[in-house]
Every structure is written in structure tokens, then in C-alpha cells.
């Protein structure tokens, strides 16, 4: 339950309510009380003032927008398609239409506040009962099923938010192509801010959507900046500084104030309260239909087959005491990992969730999502934020000084107050040994056997393996890389932006952006006509 102190700070609620994530929201002891979990999760939004609820103004305009044209109907494609492509004209016309422009205006309005204690929050409650009937009719809500089940929550509004991502990407490309890259950067920064709003939602799947949206929008910010730097250089430094100020370390985009989400824990506890009447065996009459609905939430036609399966599984289930202990251990483990440093030794241990007996603790297993994507997405977004701030600072310095900085520290304090540590760097002492690697090809890279400066070649794995990049760079640009998932400085020779451990040394390429390099390869091969 929320404390009075928390309720007294309504603007801070969504960033503060997760701190006690290791504690269950409620502990009803009988299945008849299990639906109180939905009420408890929804009560977390009650302190959000109506005037600061972004969902109330954004979703009604999104349902009025037209679907994105086929070539930009997927988020990655919308980010990748260049203004030079033949299909882009139809995408641009779609973005310029009144309904889509209204959605962009609302996006700008709900993300303009940079002080997180005063900012908008996406505070739509779960289930149809507390949502406007018109939004329910249009599928702009979260379906919980009957009876309402948090672990089966389906955010039906996700396609509308995905459309918004496509729209912001197309609009940014359109604005940059029309000679206004600064406004394109603003549109993408608005998207970063909205992604940050979604990171504060109580369920991991929503938070992951927000983190992924932030990461993609941050890469696109660097993408537009890269295109301007290697092209017309029409981006005004005042506007560039404005973007940097919005993305400032410790500002609205800061991820440290986000505790571990509690919605999923509430969902697991609700299922356990429903199928276990006590600390003893499962209620067989409730177990099978509950598990069947949980397993077929997105595919109702599977309900019969699922019901038969779970009827057979009921006798082998562990008792309620063991199930609740297992759930408690899993969520306490993830909560501890969330609060620990990326290099804390507990991060290398096998998660409690992977040790779970899926057969005898089926209710826990089926109601508990894998939380690793959430933890990993936060690390990637942290890296994108640090790298984007550094990249924009270098560009700002270059535009004002007419020369690339001699070293990364030269951009402070005029462009950024401090140089941040690389989130993937094991060295946490601070200083150049902890920063991302910055270098100017030819100037800072190895010379040939005759002592001559030569272009510096790098390999890049893109999102589409059909379009790898092998490219030599000269001193008209710069390179910034994180050590990446192998935690070693490899000076950008081979780059793959992933959280996974690879079989070969690889860096995480920040600048030039991977999407920019992939697009150049695809254009050269006539794949983006």
C-alpha cells in the first residue's frame, strides 16, 4: 500500500513507487481475495493528477491516426528509410497529415517538462473497468481477461505506441531532409522522453518497451547528427546544446531512480493466491482453468488443449508454502541484481528463476516472466545515453572550434559538465581509463610501416546480417566506442552492439552510428531505392 508521504508527492509517484519492489503488494490468503491485487496495482496511479496523465491525451489522438505506410510500418524500417528512397514521399505525406501532426504535437507537449517531479506520467490503470469506454472500444487499454489476471495482462495499446515511434522517426527524417535537422532532433528527443515515461510502468514488458524506445531514439539522434556532420552542417549549435541539456546526466532521462517493477510480482502472487487456498496442495478445481487461461491469454483457441494439460499436471504440484517461497526467492534475486552494479559478482550467478522446477512449481513458472531482458535493456540504454551525450558534445565542439577535439576531455565543461564512465568498462575509478574510447582516424590510429597516417578500417555487425559494414574512415569524422560485452578496449576494429558474450573481441559502436553505416551500405547496394 502507498504511504501518505508517497501520496503527498503525486508528481513523483511513478518513479518512487517501485522502491519496495521486493515486498508483495498484498497478501490475501484465499483465492476469493486474489482479485484485490488488481485494485492494489491500480491504486498506485491514484495520486497522479489528471492534468499530468499523458495517457489521457496521447491515446485518444493516436487512435485517430492512420496506419503507417507499408515501408515504414515497422519501427526499424521507419528509422532506416532515407529521404532519398522513392517510397519516402508517401511516408512523408502520411507524417504531414493533420491527425499525425496532432499526435506529434501532443507528444511534444507531454514531454516538454524536464523536471521529473513535475513531468507527465503514463498512468492508465489495468483492465477495462477504469478506462474510458471509447479507448476500450479502440483497443487502447490493457486487457486482463475474466477473471482479471495481472499475469495475463495484454497491453493492447502497444501497436498504437509502435505507430508513434514510426511516426517520430519519419518526421525526424522529413525535417532533416527539408533543412531543419534541429527540429528532427527535437522530435526524437521527445520520443526518448516518452520512452522514459514508459520505463516507470509497473510491468517489465512495459518498461522494456520504454527502454528499447529510448535506445532506438538515442541512436537516431546520433544518426541525424552524423548525417549533418558529414553533410551540410546546418545544425545550429544553440539547438544542439538544447538537446544536450534535455538529455543531461541526472536529468529526466536518468534511470537510477527507477526501482524494480512490482506489477509482475503482484501478478505471480495473485496466481498463487488463486490456485492455493492455503499453504497446502493446489485447488485442483481452480488450478487447471486458471493455468489454461494464463497459457492461452493471447490465443483463446488453445484454451481446451491447455485445460486438459493442466488437469493432468495438478497432482504433481508442490504445496503453497513451497510455491510462495520460490516466488519470493525469484523476485528478491532479481530485485537485488537490479540494485547492484553491473559488475557485481551476483550478476554472474545463475538466476533463481533458472533454478525453478518448472514441473512441480508450474504456477510460479508460468506467471513469472524472464526479467533478464529488463536488466539487459537498462544496461544498453545507459550505454546509449552516455555515448549520445559524448557524441553530441564532440560535434558541438567541432562546429564551434572548426576542428575535432584533441581528446574527449576537451568538450567539458562548455558542452557537458563531466565525461561519464563507460557503463561496460570494468574500471570504475574515473578518468580516461574509465571513459569510452574516442579517436580520430589517421590522427590517433596506427600508421603504416612507413610511418604514414592511413585510413582506419573497422568491421560492424548491423541489425541485418545481410548488410555487414567494412569501412575505412579518415580524419573528417571521429569514432566513439564502448568496450561492449567483452569489457575490453578493442579500438573499434570489430563492433557488435549486443549484450551477449561473443566468441571474438568486439566493441559497442556509438559513433558513427550503426544505423547510419547500415543505411549507407544498403543505399550503395540499391536496397533502399
Describe this structure in words.
The protein has 529 residues and is mainly alpha-helical. The chain folds into three domains: 4-246, no CATH class; 263-375, no CATH class; 412-524, no CATH class. Helices cover 45% and strands 5% of the residues. It is built from 19 helices and eight strands. It has helices spanning 4-7, 13-16, 36-43, 54-62, 75-80, 88-96, 98-110, 133-137, 158-177, 181-199, 204-229, 237-246, 263-275, 284-295, 303-313, 320-339, 362-367, 372-401, 514-524, and strands spanning 142-143, 154-155, 437-439, 456-461, 469-473, 479-482, 494-496, 508-511. It has a three-stranded antiparallel beta sheet. A three-stranded mixed beta sheet has the order 5-4-7, covered by helices on one side. A hairpin with a 7-residue loop joins β4 and β5 (469-473). α4 packs antiparallel against α7 (98-110), α11 (204-229) runs parallel beside α18 (372-401) and α12 (237-246) packs antiparallel against α18. The N and C termini lie far apart (56 Å). Mean pLDDT is 92; it is low at 1-11 and 17-32.
Secondary structure topology:
Blueprint: H1 4-7, H2 13-16, H3 36-43, H4 54-62, H5 75-80, H6 88-96, H7 98-110, H8 133-137, E1 142-143, E2 154-155, H9 158-177, H10 181-199, H11 204-229, H12 237-246, H13 263-275, H14 284-295, H15 303-313, H16 320-339, H17 362-367, H18 372-401, E3 437-439, E4 456-461, E5 469-473, E6 479-482, E7 494-496, E8 508-511, H19 514-524
Parallel strand pairs: 4-7
Antiparallel strand pairs: 1-2, 3-6, 4-5, 6-8
Amino acid at each position: 500500500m502507498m504511504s501518505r508521504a508517497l501520496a503527498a508527492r503525486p508528481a513523483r509517484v511513478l518513479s518512487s513507487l517501485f522502491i519496495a519492489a521486493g515486498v508483495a503488494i498484498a497478501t490475501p490468503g484465499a483465492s476469493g481475495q486474489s482479485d484485490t491485487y488488481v485494485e492494489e496495482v491500480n491504486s498506485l496511479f491514484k495520486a497522479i493528477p489528471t492534468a499530468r496523465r499523458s495517457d489521457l491525451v496521447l491515446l485518444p489522438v493516436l487512435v485517430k491516426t492512420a496506419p503507417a505506410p507499408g515501408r515504414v510500418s515497422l519501427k526499424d524500417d521507419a528509422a532506416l528509410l532515407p529521404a532519398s528512397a522513392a517510397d519516402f514521399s508517401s511516408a512523408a505525406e502520411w507524417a504531414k497529415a493533420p491527425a499525425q501532426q496532432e499526435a506529434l504535437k501532443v507528444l511534444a507537449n507531454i514531454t516538454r517538462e524536464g523536471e521529473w517531479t513535475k513531468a507527465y506520467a503514463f498512468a492508465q490503470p489495468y483492465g477495462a473497468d477504469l478506462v474510458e469506454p471509447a479507448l476500450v472500444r479502440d483497443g487502447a487499454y490493457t486487457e486482463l481477461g475474466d477473471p482479471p489476471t495481472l499475469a495475463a495482462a495484454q497491453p493492447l495499446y502497444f501497436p498504437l505506441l509502435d505507430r508513434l515511434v514510426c511516426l517520430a522517426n519519419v518526421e525526424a527524417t522529413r525535417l532533416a531532409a527539408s533543412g531543419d535537422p534541429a527540429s528532427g532532433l527535437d522530435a526524437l528527443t521527445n520520443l526518448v522522453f516518452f520512452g522514459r515515461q514508459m520505463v516507470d510502468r509497473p510491468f517489465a514488458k512495459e518498461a522494456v518497451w520504454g527502454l528499447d524506445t529510448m535506445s532506438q531514439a538515442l541512436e537516431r539522434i546520433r544518426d541525424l547528427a552524423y548525417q549533418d556532420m558529414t553533410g551540410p552542417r546546418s545544425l545550429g549549435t544553440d539547438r544542439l546544446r538544447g538537446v544536450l541539456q534535455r538529455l543531461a546526466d541526472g536529468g529526466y532521462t536518468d534511470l537510477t531512480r527507477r526501482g524494480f517493477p512490482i506489477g509482475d510480482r503482484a501478478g505471480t502472487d495473485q496466481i498463487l493466491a488463486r490456485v492455493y487456498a492455503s499453504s497446502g496442495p493446489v485447488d485442483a478445481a481452480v488450478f487447471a482453468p486458471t493455468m489454461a487461461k494464463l497459457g492461452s491469454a493471447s490465443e483463446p483457441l488453445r484454451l481446451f488443449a491447455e485445460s486438459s494439460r493442466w488437469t493432468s499436471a495438478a497432482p504433481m504440484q508442490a504445496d503453497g508454502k513451497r510455491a510462495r517461497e520460490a516466488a519470493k526467492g525469484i523476485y528478491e534475486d532479481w530485485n537485488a541484481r537490479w540494485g547492484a552494479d553491473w559488475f557485481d559478482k551476483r550478476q554472474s550467478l545463475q538466476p533463481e528463476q533458472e533454478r525453478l522446477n518448472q514441473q512441480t512449481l508450474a504456477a510460479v513458472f508460468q506467471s513469472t516472466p524472464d526479467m533478464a531482458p529488463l536488466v539487459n535493456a537498462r544496461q544498453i540504454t545507459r550505454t546509449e545515453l552516455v555515448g549520445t551525450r559524448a557524441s553530441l558534445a564532440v560535434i558541438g565542439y567541432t562546429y564551434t572550434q572548426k576542428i575535432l577535439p584533441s581528446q574527449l576531455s576537451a568538450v567539458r565543461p562548455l558542452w557537458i559538465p563531466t565525461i561519464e564512465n563507460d557503463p561496460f568498462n570494468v574500471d570504475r575509478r574515473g578518468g580516461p581509463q574509465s571513459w569510452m574510447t574516442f579517436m580520430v582516424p589517421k590522427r590517433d590510429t596506427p600508421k603504416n610501416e612507413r610511418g604514414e597516417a592511413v585510413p582506419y578500417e573497422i568491421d560492424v555487425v548491423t541489425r541485418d546480417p545481410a548488410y555487414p559494414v567494412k569501412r575505412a574512415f579518415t580524419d573528417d569524422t571521429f569514432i566513439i566506442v564502448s568496450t561492449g560485452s567483452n569489457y575490453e578496449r578493442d579500438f573499434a576494429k570489430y563492433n557488435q552492439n549486443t549484450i551477449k558474450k561473443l566468441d571474438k573481441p568486439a566493441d559497442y559502436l556509438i559513433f558513427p552510428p550503426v544505423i547510419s553505416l547500415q543505411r549507407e551500405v544498403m543505399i550503395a547496394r540499391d536496397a533502399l531505392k
